[in-house]
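Lab notebook, bench 4. The sequencing result for the construct came back, and we need a structural model before the next group meeting so we can plan mutations. Quick request posted to the team channel:

Model the 3D structure of this chain.
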Amino acid sequence: MVPLLKTVVSLAVSASLLTSGSYATDKDKDDSNFRTPIKHIVVIFQENVSFDHYFATYPRATNPGHEPLFKAKDGTPSVNGLTRL
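Done. Here's the predicted structure in token form:
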């Protein structure tokens, strides 16, 4: 019974993959107004990674006056980036 189930599942997945790209129409392919055929870019980040990687190393980011001053522990590596603006 298991080999039959694997066969049925693999056929169903193959059929869905083959038919998923067949719905494009000619109006979807009109790229005449663009320099490249790219229409969408999707960027996926882990939670807070984009914020941490950009703003944690931003050289001119400071705490507001009423916030406590941040002081890194001794031995903390220095930032290697965005320091020559």
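The helical segments are 2-20, 49-55.
Will bring this to the meeting.
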